[in-house]
Amino acid sequence: MKIGVVYYSATGTTATLAQAVAAGVRTIQGAAAVPLEIMGTDIEEGRYKNEQLLQQLDACNGIVFGSPTFMGSVAAPFKAFMDATSERYGTRAWAGKVAAGFTIGGSPSGDQLNTLQTLNVFACQHGMLWVGLDLPGGWDAHGRNRLGALSGLVAQQTEDGKVHHLDRLTAMYLGERVARIGAVGAIRQDSSPQCIGQA
Question: I need a surface site. Which of 70, 129, 131, 199 has the fewest CB within 10 A?
């Protein structure tokens, strides 16, 4: 089972979270993480042009999307990537894959929730199955999900421009959760033909 982690990172903090998500995926037996970075050089006249990256995502069982929050939403390079998937939207190429999202901003709010909702709507347009966090804020013994978002990971950049260690732990947990749920879905898909005709 392969889980793609596709992200755009402007300062390196989103990349750090993406690496943590990938590390979490790998904690589940039989799951492989496929980190894929959206590069500014992949965009020509506002259009995303890296078909090879899109094909790698086609081959994944699930996809975790990551973008920093810029002006209350996903960064422009990530939006260009989203727009480039329109043909796959039409053919339902990603339908049934598990999906999740993460973002980071400079303040505790900063409208990061809108970025997660943008990623959620994007995944739902593709017919994907959204996976949120199941760690209530303030109730985790390890301090994960310190900002309390449940629709995905919201992280806050530290004063020195780094990723808070608890946000990194939360990213690992998100990757683990996506892989775990994706594995269950894969088992069900493999066994579904046996259910045909049964009441």
Answer: 199
Question: pLDDT 10s digit of each residue in the chain, 199 long?
Answer: 999 999 999 999 999 999 999 999 999 999 999 999 999 999 999 999 999 999 999 999 999 999 999 999 999 999 999 999 999 999 999 999 999 999 999 888 779 999 999 999 999 999 999 999 999 988 999 999 999 999 999 999 999 999 999 999 999 999 999 999 998 765 444 444 443 333 3
First-last CA distance in the chain: 30
Residue 43, strand partner residues: 48
Torsions phi, psi of 11, nearest 5?
A: -115, -5
For residue 167, give the CATH number of its domain: 3.40.50.360
Domain extent for 183: 2-195
Long-range contacts of 139-147 (CB under 8 A, 24+ apart): 142/166, 142/169, 143/169, 144/169, 144/170, 144/173, 145/170, 145/173, 146/170, 147/108
Chain-centre distance of CA 145, in angstroms?
16
- How many structural domains are present in the chain? 1
| Separation CA 143–CA 135 (nearest Å) | 9
CA distance 130 to 165: 25
* Structure tokens given for 133: 């966090």
